[in-house]
């Protein structure tokens, strides 16, 4: 079994995040980047990051901070590294005193994170509505990002569209377009780049059906939304449980949670997301979702939260082959039930798996042996 030695090889690694830290994110580039939000005053929050060095984590550096931030368990900041070493980060700031009135800020650093400048800050488009749920990645021109924004007629942030935008490494805009005008209002997005171009996955909204859709840019045009799989999950509200995507060449994998069957699923594509295989069920029977995903040589690794009992969740991971074979699930950590545990993150760096999650504070762990595959 592919994860047979995981229990012995998984090691908790202390990190420089403070006691009042979380939510958290990971990014794997020339370095492994750990980023998190930390409360530093009665009303002040800061976005900080550290990199993994040969001797341990670096000292934390601050990207930005303020007393008007929107800090949320499900809509959380991120940091990525571009091909030229430029760092990009995003966070959320309130635009008024109303509960869900906040907007996106994207900043860049050309000096390794010492100084940061905001270059993208879309203006509020509707009252008590938000712009967020961002997914970012390097693109051939610089930076690609997908995000949710309110339609101009939105009230309370629940009439929502999906945007895709590109920027050069210096922050100059390349494109920004709405690629679906009616989507689920508060589930995470996922973006990836294939040999055929960018693809975005997200939870769609069609007459209360909240399944996972994909849109692809073919040439200069975006395809119509297509379901990754027809789960037909009918729910009169947003489940706050978005998908994850990974791609290499024309290989694509998508993982997601559906509440109709209460299942975590994984599907593969060999044609850059145009079609998908029948999904595999990944979970152990009592999933909460909150998935993350990595491609491997023969398939994928999926992480998710599984309910242990009324008070505890387990962060689990398992491998899945493109042929359908599943590895034994492994428990990475035990977390408190509820929203406070947020969305754990998983990345591969130097051939090893890293996990980050929030318990009382940000925690990290490393799988000290390379992931074995058939």
- Supply the number of helical segments: 1
Average pLDDT confidence is 93
Outline? globular
Q: pLDDT under 50 segments (min length 5)?
A: 1-5
Q: Bin the strand percentage.
A: over 45%
Molecular structure report:
The chain has 374 residues and is mostly beta strands. It has one helix at 6-9, and strands at residues 10-12, 21-28, 32-39, 45-53, 56-57, 61-66, 78-81, 87-94, 102-109, 117-120, 132-139, 142-150, 160-168, 173-183, 190-194, 197-203, 212-218, 221-222, 226-227, 244-248, 251-258, 263-269, 280-281, 287-295, 299-307, 312-321, 330-336, 345-349, 352-358, 362-367. The strands form seven sheets. Strands 2, 3, 4, 5 and 6 form a five-stranded antiparallel beta sheet that branches. Strands 15, 16, 17, 18 and 19 form a five-stranded antiparallel beta sheet that branches. The longest helix is centred in the N-terminal third of the chain and has 4 residues, at 6-9. It is globular and about 45 Å long. It starts with 5 loop residues before the first helix and ends in a 7-residue tail after the last strand. Residues 1-5 have low confidence and may be disordered.
